[in-house]
From TrEMBL:
UniProt GO molecular function: cAMP binding; cAMP-dependent protein kinase inhibitor activity; protein kinase A catalytic subunit binding
Gene Ontology, cellular component aspect: cAMP-dependent protein kinase complex; cytosol
Descriptive protein name: Cyclic nucleotide-binding domain-containing protein
Source organism (scientific name): Haloferula rosea
Signal sequence range: none
Length: 158
């Protein structure tokens, strides 16, 4: 893993990051806070990005590459779409991560450190959480739909 500082120019969102739905929908103050406290990380194939059991308040946004999600060592999903968010739930709850995420190919991600929230006003903080929770609800709904479809297919095969 290699980590590079992200040099954010306040008030601007680069085209690559503008494609990330979550970032495109937060207000400018929260966006500036997110990006000013983020870094770009690069992982080689096979490297762990997140480890099951670890506790962290950081989450990641996939920019390029493909990652594999494993629970108890068993592959459960592959994510390859730019803008996919990883480790978001445990970054909010502070609980141990429930899956390991590894680079299936050479990957670039945005590592988001949520300590910027302390510098936001109450209204900016509320606006950030509204966008974050809405985005997470959409992500979780999509994942539940995909999991339900896989479960239905498995039950059909039985």
């Amino acid at each position: 893993m290699r980590e590079y500082p992200y040099r954010h120019e306040k008030g601007k969102l680069p085209p690559t990051l503008a494609k990330v739905e979550f970032l495109a929908n937060v207000d400018q103050a929260a966006l500036d806070g997110i990006l000013s406290n983020s870094s770009l990380v690069e992982f080689d194939c096979g490297e762990d990005i997140l480890q099951e059991g670890e506790i962290s308040t950081e989450f990641y946004i996939l920019l390029k590459g493909e990652v594999e999600v494993k629970k108890a060592g068993e592959a459960v999903a592959t994510l390859a779409q730019s803008g996919e968010i990883l480790g978001e739930l445990r970054s909010l709850t502070g609980e141990a991560r429930t899956a390991t995420v590894s680079a299936a190919t050479h990957c670039f991600l945005l590592k988001v450190k949520q300590n910027f929230i302390d510098g936001l006003s109450e209204s900016e903080r509320s606006a950030y959480y509204i966008v974050l929770y809405r985005f997470l609800a959409e992500v979780l709904a999509k994942r539940l739909e995909e999991t339900s479809a896989r479960l239905a297919a498995l039950e059909k095969d039985l």
